[in-house]
Amino acid sequence: MTDTHDMRREMPLGLAQRGYTGVIQHLAAKEAGSALSDIELESRLIELGFVEGARVEVLHEGLVGRDPIAVRVDNITIAVRRREAMAIIVA
Amino acid sequence: MELPLLHLALVGTPNSGKTSLFNALTGSRQKVANYPGVTVERKEGFFVTPLGRQVSIVDLPGTYSLRGRSPDEEITRDFVLGKASGEIVPDLVLCVADSTNLRLTIRLLLELKRTGRPLVLVLNMFDIANRRGISVDVDRLAKELGVPVVTSIAVRKGGTADLLKLTDEISAKLAAEPQPNNWRALSVSELRATQREADRIISDCVSLPARPDTLTARIDAIVLHPVGGLIVLALILFVMFQAVFAWAQPLMELLQSGFDALGEFVHATLPAGLLQSFLQNGVISGVGSVIVFLPQIIIIFLFILLLEDFGYMARAAFLMDRIMGGAGLHGRAFIPLLSSFACAIPGIMATRVIDNKRDRLTTILIAPLMTCSARIPVYTLIISAFIPATDVLGFINLQGLVMFGLYAAGITSALAVSFLIKFFMLRDYAPAPFMLELPDYKVPRLKSIAIGIFTRAKMFLQRAGTTIFSMMVLIWFLASFPQPPAGSTEPAIDFSLAAIIGKAIEPLLAPVGFNWQIAVALIPGMAAREVAVAALGTVYAIEGGKEAAEQIGQVLATKWSLATALSMLAWYIFAPQCASTLAVIRRETGSWGWMAATFTYMLVLAYAASLLTYNAAVALGAG
Fold it and tell me: Which UniProt keywords apply (chain A) (predicted)?
């Protein structure tokens, strides 16, 4: 990716605003506070294509609490709640 | 020598076009049932290959992996592994991929390879991929994956020819010795490694488009806009409501008059007696009172299937997720609950789109609280008899206001019950996180939708029909036996078991202001709520039944107090007065227990609401 990505600070995707673009650095299921177990959450995220190196873009936000978010992951769009997106560390 | 039936299984991720491929291969030669012990739909179809081989194909529930995290996904896993009870191990597994989006399917395919089952990768929607400038090196992909790869365009005539040809070739040389099954649940690191392997293969064999799908992005800019999206959703719902109530009405009236005419014909043809009464009142009017809902069911499913096929359903869930989440409901519960305003039966059937068991159960339990169209005749009758048509604040019609209040009470109580279920009963059950693919928009395939509606309608008629039929026979029996003594001038129903039961439960209903005639009317009203109107007519010995609804209203106005009328309205917001809904709940949850739970909680609510309403009204001087 471009140089700017390397210089950006890592942050959870769950805090990203609409229009944010970045690259997945790693998954941190423990941080998310999801009702799912860490392993289950991580497995599901990988199954939906959230793996290290994937390009993400926050396309849309819901009305209440800007939640959930619609995220472009490479060439598919996935809707997730911000709570689960906290497990996806991007930069 | 006749070759044995070849068994195929269709596996793929959700939105891979699996079902449209299934429809393209089998047409209407489909059989829908449930897997034993679970409420997962089992769809099997049949076709013949160009070389004349008879093939049975099972459309397995969509899944992203073989981990089996829901009953549906467990079925897919067990079926492929040959562990599903009563199922034959498939001879060949077809793994279906959306050609525009291969990442997730290739990973699934790599996982499937470990099972040792003979595999084919079907690149579906290949035309859309080509149009978007995605080019796939099919031969190289087959070599890298080590499985045959075939392209298909399920929606086009002849679009499955290559697949059919390949099926013949493969079936001719299916390995005599089966491959060993090396599959076990993948650990997180294996899963990640598999996805990386899939991504490597894709980058070697697929060149991605210069032009992404801008159409989907443009539609989503409006449809998923936080405010605009909700307005679009409201508009779609408005049209859907109009369709369900207005378009279905003429057809429903036609069906109703058809059944009435048939009943009259039987009445005129057969000599008066038990057989005549059984056929006219038990079979024809009973089963007829349920079949009249068929147009509404077809229209609702037309909308649901169209929106699902187009790709909108996932968006509606996205928009409503947080709004409904406050009451403990999943975003996907929105459409089933909405359908329940027409009738809880298609609503409960539509809960199949909710993949999480807990969320689905909550939705099923509260669906009957949505004011269904069968309550409308009862509401209209009582409101027009007791509520004056005066204006409130100069422009709001009081009758309309009461009607709105009844709807609002239904919705509010549904949300409250859902909240309580979440809070007390299913607390330890991990709530499903909302993680959903928003597929690219696609033009709905009319043939596929027609087949979908046809199978749903058939299922409604067949299965709900048999249960309802037996209920109707029972109710007719209660209302007809024992027969009145010869020369009796009172209504025959006075001598029946129904009247005996009505009088027996009258003391229980007296605190809510119901007399024994209401108690009797509630019994046939069990079959379908609006039957209570006709039953009240019968009980008050008025000629004409349903047609004389106006007349019944006048009689009620003289026989009931306002408090009784209001109590009756409150009762009908909650009353579990619909045997067919209960039958569908039993079938969809696979449990008599949940059916009983629904019946009990609604009965308790109905009684409490009526008790409160009646006593408040009496205290205010309306007794």
Answer: Iron
- Type of residue found at B611: L
Domain count, chain B: 3
- Do B322 and A70 make contact, defined as CB atoms within 8 angstroms? no
- Residue A60 pLDDT > 90, yes or no? yes
Instruction: Give the closest of A64, A76, A79 to B323, CB-based.
Output: A64
The residue in chain A having the minimum alpha-carbon distance to the alpha carbon of residue B221 is A60
Chain mean pLDDT for chain B = 82
Residue B389 is assigned to a structural domain of this protein: no
B482 and B452 within one domain:
no
Place B542 in a pLDDT band, splitting at 50, 70 and 90.
very low
% of chain A residues with pLDDT over 70? 92
Band of pLDDT at residue A61, cut at 50, 70 and 90: very high
Helices (H), B114-213: 126-131, 138-145, 161-172, 188-205
Partners of residue B98 on adjacent β-strands: B124
Model confidence over A35-58: pLDDT tens digits? Answer: 778 888 899 899 999 999 999 999
Domains of chain A, earliest start first: 3-90 (2.30.30.90)
Interface test with A, best of B438, B440, B442 (most A CBs within 10 A): B438
Q: Are residues B427 and B297 in the same domain?
A: yes
Confidence (pLDDT) at B149: 93
The strand ranges marked E within B391-514 are 391-392, 396-397, 435-437
Q: Is the pLDDT of residue B297 over 80?
A: no
With contact defined as beta carbons under 8 Å apart, do B492 and B470 qualify?
A: no
Residue with tokens 């048509």: B389
* A17-31 tens-digit pLDDT: 999 999 999 999 887
Flag if B435 and A48 touch (Cβ within 8 Å). yes
Q: Give the list of residues 6+ apart from residue B384 with CB closer than 8 angstroms, or none.
A: B399, B550, B553
Closest CB to A77 among B103, B435, B438: B438
Does residue B265 sit in the same domain as residue B137?
Answer: no
Residue B319 in contact with partner chain A when CB distance is under 8 A: yes
Q: Which two tokens stand for residue B448?
A: 């596929």
Instruction: Residue A65: list chain B partners with CB under 8 A.
Output: 322
Rounded to two decimals, the pTM is 0.79
In this structure, the answer to whether residues B489 and B570 fall within a common structural domain is: yes
For residue B320, the chain A residue with the least C-alpha distance is A62
CA–CA gap between residue A54 and residue A42 (Å, rounded): 15
> CB distance from B314 to chain A under 8 Å?
yes
Range of the domain at B485: 474-619
| Nearest chain B Cα distance for residue A17, angstroms | 14
Question: Do B208 and A75 touch, CB atoms closer than 8 A?
Answer: yes
B99 and B243 housed in the same domain: no
Could you give the CA distance from residue B74 to residue B69 in angstroms, rounded to a whole number?
7
**Do the Cβ atoms of A80 and B438 come within 8 Å?**
no
Q: How far is B210 from chain A (nearest CA, A)?
A: 12
Checking DSSP bridges between strand A69-73 and strand A55-61, what pairing results, if any?
antiparallel
Buried b (16+ CB within 10 A) or exposed e, B281-293: bbbbbbbbbbbbb
Contacts with A, B 406-445, CB within 8 Å: 430-431, 433-440
- Residues of chain A contacting B217 with CB distance shorter than 8 Å: 59
